[in-house]
Amino acid sequence: MSTLPVEIRRATKRDIPFITSSWLKSFRDGYWARGIPNNIYYYNQHKILEQLLPKGIVLVACNEQDPDQILGYVCAEVVDTALVIHYMYVKHPFRKFGIATKLVMLLEQSEKPPAIMYTHKTAAAKAIILAKELKWIYNPYLVFDKLPEGWSNDED
Fold first, then answer.
1. What is the pTM of this model?
2. Are the C-beta atoms of residues 103 and 68 closer than 8 Å to each other?
């Protein structure tokens, strides 16, 4: 495994089209999204991204010499004290170079979470979790952080 000159930085507004497009396309074939018609999947998944990206911690791994060349990214947030990884993506030619590991390690160092959860299950996520024997908890319901308008937790 050779090393790449990788820089990790916060996502900028210019990065959002790439992040949105790659997330939607790569998750399309994930376990959870199989069987959903395209028009339903893309509309609703885009709505989820519209909620997650602005409030999330979005880190981008880019070429050190060209910060506009995105190699991968992670979108996460802290819920209570747990680190919740919503999505992680690395372009195919740059996989197996430790980019995803570097992104997660940076989040772990800065947030120091007692637990890590994830909300979007993919084949790549499953392989990484199994290979590294990680104790991450899959909880897709963390995507929905509040009840729909008109609902309440109060007993009527």
1. 0.87
2. no
Q: What is the pLDDT of residues 4-27, one digit of tens each?
A: 789 999 999 999 999 999 999 999
CA–CA–CA angle 131, 119, 100 (5° rounding): 45
Q: Domains along the chain?
A: 6-143 (3.40.630.30)
CA-closest candidate to residue 117, choices 78, 90, 148, 155:
78
Q: Is 88 in contact with 104 (CB distance < 8 Å)?
A: yes
Strands (E), the chain: 6-10, 57-63, 66-79, 82-90, 116-118, 137-138
**Residue 91 CB coordination number (10 Å):** 16
Contact 117, 140 (CB under 8 A): no
Of residues 4, 15, 27, 20, the one with CA closest to residue 99: 4
Query: How many whole angstroms separate alpha carbon 80 and alpha carbon 115?
Result: 10
Structure tokens at 53: 């990206």
CA distance 28 to 106: 27
